[in-house]
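ping. complex inputs:
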Amino acid sequence: MKPPRFDYLAPRSIDEALGILAQHGEDAKVLAGGQSLVPLLNFRLVRPAHLVDLNDVDGLAGIRFDDGHLAIGAMTRQRAVEGSSLVRERCPLLAEAMPQIGHVQIRNRGTIGGSLAHADPAAELPAVVAALGGELVLRSARGERVLTPERYFVAYLTTAAEPDELLVEARVPVTPPRTGSAFLEVSRRHGDFALVGVATMVTVDEAGVCTACALALTGVGPTPVVARDAVRGLIGARPTPAAFEDAGRRVAERLHPDSDLHASSEYRAHLAAVLTSRSLARATERAVKSDGR
Amino acid sequence: MIERTIHVTVNGRRVEKTVEVRKTLADFLRDDLDLTGTHLGCEHGVCGACTVIVDGAAVRSCLLFAAQMDGHEIETVESLAHGETLDPLQAAFHEHHGLQCGFCTPGFLMTLTCFLRECPNPSEAQIREAISGNLCRCTGYRNIVAATLAAARTRGASARS
Amino acid sequence: MPAIGRSVRRLEDRRLLTGRGKYAADFRLPGMLYGAVLRSPHAHARLGEIRSKAALALPGVVAVVTFDDLGDVGRIPTRLGHQAGNVVCLQRPLASDKVRYVGEPVAFVVAESRYLAEDALDAMEVDYDPLPAVADARRSVESGAPVLHDAVAGNVATTLHTQKGDALAAMAGAHIRVREHLAVQRHTGVPIETRGLTAAFDAGTGMLRLWGVAKIPHFNRRVLADLLGHPEHLIQFTELEVGGGFGVRGEFYPEDFLVPWTARRLGRPVQWIEDRREHFTATNHSRQQYHDVEIGFDREGRIVALVDHFMVDLGGYIRTHGVVVPELTAALLPGPYRIPHYTAEIRCVLTNKTPTGTYRGPGRYEGTFVRERLMDIAAQRLGVDPLELRRRNFIRPDEMPYEVGGGALAQRTVYDCGDYASALDHALTALGYDAARREQDDARRQGRFVGIGIGFLVEKAGLGPWEYARVEVDATGHVVVYSGVASVGQGIETTLAQVVADELNVAPERITVVHGDSARVPFGVGGFASRGASVALPAALEAARKVRAKILRVASSLLEAAADDLVLADGAVHVRGVPDRKVTFRELARAAVPGPPDMEPGLYAAHFFEAPMMTYPYGCHAAIVEVDAGTGQVKILKYALAYDIGKAVNPMIVEGQLVGALAQGIGGALLEELVYDEQGQLLTTTLMDYLLPSVMEMPESVEVRILEETPTPLNPLGVKGTGEGGSSGCGATIANAVADALAPLGVTITALPLSPDRLHRLIEEHRLHARDQGPGH
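pong. complex structure:
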């Protein structure tokens, strides 16, 4: 399984990279961590004329705390995010999801931006960013634009990025006080893509009443699914197991997942209900314990 | 470019080679440098048999191109033993029957070498997590975990002495 | 201290740990070319024109070989499981007019690198005229199904029958009859090293050399000689390191003809290394069987009859294993139980899928699942404890040797020895059975689904017909063992050394073992069917005894002492009590040529150990599992197995084999499946789709008990063979445990694998069924 011929370019700056993309656009593929792209090349499932390696580009990696947000450079290694105390303190949902992405060797090379840009329907990061209400920053020679996850994740393995655009940064809000989060997934083996995964944030007030709830799922559609209607009923009340299960049912009702080799449509919908209920319970428990810090 | 001249340090030795850009790091090590200890089991990043250490991190060499390695440092299984003396991890694998056909073994050794540097006193659960990305079809993994625990103890003992 | 029975650390390890072991892909020759196989993308199609002009025009592409180039090439013959009528279903090295499975070789391309060879594959053009395909054996036997081989109407290549007594009559008279449809999925060995071979031809001497052979190199050399029309003595082979066999590596495949044929044609060395994607369609599949099985009991819960109608899904061709796999299922289906009347009828069915062969415990993983599942289902219907039902029906030690009623591999199935009740007890103790039942009660009160299952298995080992060994002391005093066995990574070098070490009183680490080299080992049967310990070791033992006698004869002559007064120690012989009166192996070896007049010259001897009858190791697996009824996921909390192998030559190696096999067994029970769509397209073509267990899928608690309670009388060591006992019982055991866990929900298990999706569906079906039945269900 050897890759087909391609022309290899290794820009040293973002502008140089954008210039290459402006020139070659559709005929180019961007190489970040390579953990998703290189298998496709080895299978000869993609045959780009040009491979644009971002690994020598300055300024695309790093985690910054910036005005209520964490700004994560697209080329930040997943392992760096996993080990970041800033992420652990400010965004526990992201920290919880990281070890469930593949295995150490994959996270040593895989990048945040690479995973988001690849947009696998069963990947963890797209759902996490969606649940967090994050933003994706795209840049091209023509300028910069910022998209919500709903606008960014368009279809199966497809984002809204134009051929000359590069994802340069993911921004996620820091977790507010009295908020608990949970990331749960069911996969066939440890480290595999999720059959279904759920990312949940629950905020409570001093009386234990739910004031906010965000929930996003992976593995149930071509793009991450953000559940708004289904969780609306939780807000303004003190959460109960029955309410969690009810939310689970509502989430599942609205889903039309595909059947594939790994799981049937009905099973995915069922898992969505079960994991929604369980993750809401766990997130709420953590919110209540979080002490207002 | 379709060829690139790279300067790379492999097992402590500086090497200069010109490579076709699509040649994977695994094939470069095996074919250009005759370091055939790194094995190919799947060429799509799942089995871990091709694991090497690049700049101190365990990675799948089948998912890297040699052309990307200019200026970087690589360690392969051939770097572990000192002449004829097995290093403590290799010795522990031998003592605890941590290998049968041996094909996946270099990948495990490099994964664990990197892991033990970061986590010199691991629990069994941590070891299991660390090797979850390396597949073995022969051993059932139990002796690999036992060997690693033993190696950690030995290294700890020799570090103290 | 004797080496036999000791956990001697392996002689193989050092070179493997340091990355110095050379596997097939590590072997290099100057001027070597690299091959790649063009494979059919269609499951069933007429093969039209193959155009290679564009491929040959690419830089570095040297040749393209198609069927027309091969001339009048024959079909790859069976090695086992022959049935006269099956010749028409055997495969040729390249497709001629038709392709019958996705992945079938259509052309062989050779270039200066594998990269360039794959570029050449991209440029090849082939005309296919697709035909309707059939991917399900149950559909394949229906009228109107596409016919794969014109001479085989209805796609049933063979029907096999086994009969003991009068099962139909006995069943009719049974007090209780339990019938079930049980199925095992298509899965296979998937070693971490894919297949590979290098061939080189010397036009001057006519010598054709092969590197990277495995399993049965002497046999395959003969097949190659016949197919190529090349003298056998002009074909040399050398094994390299082998990255796991599990039954699937080493049989004669199309590539084993194409590589040497091309090397001979081109006059340049050719290497072909299979990649993982093609491995899934090119290397033998296994295990897929559908059973319609019934068991009958008398009032006392004793089995009176067993009737099994089953179907095995062979794939698009019959390969070297013929129909041996279903033969083995039938031969060992009765397992450890006394079954006076038994009938098995088997349909061997062709489908448009990759052909099949053996995979570790072939036929027995399937048969053990069927039988042990049936016993648990029967126990439930009879209202008898599943352990008690088994005990009541075990064949007793005093009934051994025991004629089971069927046969396989050209011999009647006769159990040599066994104490089945004892093995069951050991497994239960190892599991902590009583504590496990209490744990289950607690769990059930908490609403958790915890289950306990056991699976009893009788395996086979020690397949003959013979094995060859030669032991030699060379002129520098070194002991060398030449064995006709093959290595698949199982540690055979170490155990051979142990056996000879004890005989010649030399440390095993000082002994060199040579195998897999036709120039140095003229005869051999090979490494498969758990025969290494039970057939290859006795051959080495007897050869070593002969050499020992020669050593004493020559030493007696040199030292002028009686053989009884001589002691072998540390590579020398001395007179008892007079250590200075000694002569070294080095001196003895030289003195042995021509040596004393009444002795054949040379300090070496060969022995063919004949093994007309197989041995039957046996044991019991036991597991505690928990099922998450919400997600359908299964967690194995604890696994125990007790296995009687007669004698453990190297306990460490034995345990390693059992635990390693267990991992494969768990894969088969929970994770692994080769999935085809209805058009015969294989959907599981990567290691992300075909799920091999990682360490995380293995239970943290595994207890192994190696039993040596019933050494076999069939060889001087008493050894039975271990390789397959760790996996064969696993499908049954985990299925029984999951069924026990979900018993409160009324779910029953009749098929593998137990994927979460499948378990969820079973739970749902029963929940809906119970709801429809109304309250009180």
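Chain A has three domains: 7-53, 63-173, 180-288.
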